[in-house]
């Protein structure tokens, strides 16, 4: 029985796809582990999902929800919101580690986060989809319940975001700034 080159190539292609398919089905992601000393997930570097300072069930003040401790609420699937008022700076610092970013501020209103970034002097470009996705990834990793993460580097908008962030840090309610936040989110220069 004489096989043609096309038949041999087809058989090799089938064998290769079976081998690769078997490899892909057996690969599993490493199980995330929590570092007991820092409260962070060692595989992602993000805050741990249970009993971490700054994580509180929505509508509570960093305590347990209806008599459950934080571990129970995590196990039963109760979603916890990131405490942006107390811990936005931690996420801002992680975003600041992106090579193009010198500093940023985050404002969260409802299920929308607005991030204003200032680029390093060495970076001569503008906001790109890649940078926006890296920033949005950090914000959503902290608070997966967010639906929209809007990012801007427009100098006027960033200056306003920094002012609003300072006002929130000094006690002003973010709810009072909803219309300002919404107008920047809808700005044509803001990437969502």
Automatic annotation (TrEMBL):
It comes from Candidatus Alectryocaccomicrobium excrementavium. This is YhcN/YlaJ family sporulation lipoprotein. InterPro entries: Spore_lipoprot_YhcN/YlaJ-like. Pfam families: Spore_YhcN_YlaJ. PROSITE patterns: PROKAR_LIPOPROTEIN. Residues 1-29 form the signal peptide. Keywords: Lipoprotein, Signal. Residues 31-45, 63-83 have a biased composition (Polar residues). Residues 31-83 are annotated as: Disordered.
């Amino acid at each position: 029985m004489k096989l043609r080159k096309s038949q041999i190539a087809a058989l090799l292609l089938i064998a290769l796809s079976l081998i690769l398919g078997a490899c892909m089905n057996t690969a599993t992601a490493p199980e995330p582990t929590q570092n007991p000393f820092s409260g962070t997930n060692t595989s992602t570097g993000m805050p741990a999902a249970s009993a971490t300072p700054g994580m509180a069930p929505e509508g509570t003040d960093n305590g347990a929800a209806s008599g459950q401790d934080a571990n129970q609420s995590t196990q039963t699937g109760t979603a916890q919101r990131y405490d942006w008022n107390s811990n936005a700076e931690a996420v801002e610092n992680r975003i600041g580690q992106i090579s193009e970013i010198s500093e940023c501020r985050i404002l969260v209103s409802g299920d929308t986060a607005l991030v204003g970034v200032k680029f390093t002097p060495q970076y001569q470009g503008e906001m790109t989809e890649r940078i926006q996705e890296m920033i949005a990834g950090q914000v959503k990793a902290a608070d997966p319940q967010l639906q929209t993460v809007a990012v801007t580097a427009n100098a006027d908008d960033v200056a306003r975001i920094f002012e609003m962030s300072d006002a929130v840090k000094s006690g002003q309610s973010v709810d009072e700034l909803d219309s300002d936040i919404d107008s920047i989110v809808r700005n044509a220069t803001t990437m969502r």
